[in-house]
Amino acid sequence: MFELLGGKMFGCECFCWRKHTDHQYPLPQPQPFFLPSPIPEWPLGQGFGTGKINLGELEVVKITEFERVWSCSLLRGKAEGVTFYKPVGIPDGFFCLGYYCQPNDQPLRGYVLAARERVASSTEVYCDYDSDTDFPALRKPVNYSLIWSTDCGSGCGFFWLPNPPLGYKAMGILVTDTQDEPDVEEVRCVREDLTETCEIMDTILATDANTFQVWTTRPCKRGMFCKGVSVGTFFCCTYFISENQELEIACLKNLDPSLHAMPNLDQIHAVIKHYGATVFFHPKEDCMPSSVQWFFKNGALLYKDGKVNGEPIDYLGSNLPSGGTNDGAFWIDLPRDDNARKNVRNGNLESAELYVHVKPALGGTFTDIVMWIFCPFNGPANLKIGLMNIQMNKIGQHVGDWEHFTLQISNFTGELWQVYFSQHSGGEWVDAFNLEFIEGNKPIVYSSKHGHASFPHPGIYLQGSDKLGIGIRNDTARSNYFVDSSTRYQIVAAEYLGGVVTEPCWLQYMREWGPTIVYDSRSELDKIISLLPLFVRFSVENIFDLFPTELYGEEGPTGPKEKDNWVGDERS
Predict the structure, then answer these.
(1) pTM for this one?
(2) In terms of DSSP H, where are the helices of 450-520?
(3) How many CB atoms within 10 Å of residue 568?
(4) Which of 93, 514, 140, 563 is nearest to 331 (CA)?
(5) How many CB atoms lie within 10 A of CB 204?
(6) Which InterPro entries does the UniProt record give (predicted)?
């Protein structure tokens, strides 16, 4: 057991630990998180789910066992504090690249990578750098620089930056509970051409005056074709970090062109069967999803600029213009007949399925399974102004609504790591321990009424000003209306597999899936303002500033391939 000693420096109340037999730890210690059900044995493949990933000259493993080094309770931030960990259980021949830290108010579920040099076979070719070098991929640091310490005696927190040899990069920070400089054998630096730049992400610890801060990190360049690999380490410093400033640590770079750790087609199907989310729609939803084929078959029309009448769309979308860019020359609309139009607006839940795009993430160490869902119509917005809730007549409506969520899978183990919930013009990544699950390891996605944005939990989410309580309501709830994506899905793209997946014709349609609509927002909002009590009325101009931009007009939404996240990273 341990005795608590206190100290303070730079506005951060810090704690040292001394072994003792009669005291408990005063700070809560995170416990490991496990998915509700065991991970199955995946179908045979190359490197997916094998525990090791080849990055070219390096082979890496994910370390999830840790030994606590030091904990700190914050004066500014969450009182539960932060804990810094040393990775343990590193396999023989692999080397530590840096330490790990996380807040104490969440389960212990992080990782850091450990690496070793690979000996390439005579047939292997590495890309993007000149491999004709006598310098090893890994080297010990020359020594360490002390970044910050609590200066409160033996056993406190000391933060060390490895000083790499010339031509090498440090991958992470070390933490000790004594002032003795770490041994150079403790960590390895990586040859510079095997690394990429990284950036700070979430703040984990900050003193009152920001004289010392700790962040998580991620590669600067992220997306389907980017090679940056997150090491899982943290960065800290005592100075201001400006945007685009290069850090003193780096991330790894995957130079294996085969991306051997990505799942093959059989493994993709197995992963979706095991993790496919159940999407619940609101019990009062009247704009349901449908399959794309149902939408075409039930009267959707293709319009061309300059022509009055639209033409029917083939069941497979084979007569849609293919490729190019969204130049406004074509768009899709509902049938002209009133009854047919109403039928298509309502959607068809029985035909609905998820359209799956599988792509590499973080240099092929993770797989993003992007699940797209199509709704023929997006219903009118529900506005919240203080305690008032007002259903709009037309504002927010548009034809053709594409929404998505993304399952991020660790290629080391095949474990579901986090889920991205797309929400109109943005979204959020949610760790697995903050998800709701149904039937084993299948997460739940809640689709908002009319807008179809994705959320991790039921409730009311406001898009606008939370502080003033003004914006668009996103209402979510569980109901009898749902789609199980583990069985109702179609894989439409997986570029890294070559020609294994045949992309449907409609996926190549790069124009708008609905006509451009301009709303008479001022007229409808003027009526709302007139209902407000005098003491809470805003000017029309100010109220317009508080509402999301989609209230003023809707361009017809484009299809999945025209979205930034098709190739790039998710927006959050």
Answers:
(1) 0.90
(2) none
(3) 14
(4) 514
(5) 21
(6) Vps62
Residue 527 in domain:
yes
Question: 119 pLDDT exceeds 80?
Answer: no
Buried b (16+ CB within 10 A) or exposed e, 367-390: bbbbbbbbbbbbbbbbbbbeeeeb
> How many domains does the chain contain in total?
2
Given 253, 284, 306, the domain boundary residue is: 253
The C-alpha atoms of residue 62 and residue 90 are separated, in whole angstroms, by: 9
Mean pLDDT of 115-121: 83
* Closest to 360 measured CA to CA, from 485, 501, 259: 259
Per the structure, the complete domain to which residue 372 belongs is given by 265-562
Query: Can you read off the two tokens belonging to residue 123?
Result: 């047939």
Q: Which amino acid, 57?
A: E
Residue 330 lies in a domain: yes
First to last CA, the chain: 42
pLDDT value, residue 255:
97
pLDDT surpasses 60 at 361: yes
Rounded-to-integer distance, Cα 352 and Cα 73, Å: 49
Is residue 436 a part of any domain in this protein?
yes
Spatial distance between the Cα atoms of 259 and 269, rounded to a whole number of angstroms: 18
Residue 152's pLDDT is 47
Domain assignment present for residue 177? The answer is yes
Looking at the fold, whether 402 and 287 belong to one and the same domain comes out as: yes
Instruction: Encode burial over 44-80: b for 16+ CB neighbours within 10 A, e otherwise.
Output: ebebbbbeebbbbbbbbbbbbebeebbbbbbeebeeb
Distant-in-sequence, close-in-space partners of 432: CB < 8 Å, separation ≥ 6? 33, 35, 109, 415, 416, 417, 418, 419, 443
Stronger pLDDT, 150 or 353, i.e. the higher one? 353
Q: 373, 285 in Cβ contact below 8 A?
A: no
Contact 316, 480 (CB under 8 A): no
Tell me if 177 sits within 8 A of 7, measured CB to CB.
Answer: no
| Count of residues making up the chain | 572
pLDDT, tens digit, 9 for 90 and up, residues 24-50:
445 678 899 999 999 999 999 999 999
DSSP-derived 3-state class of residue 111: coil
| pLDDT at 244 > cutoff 90 | no
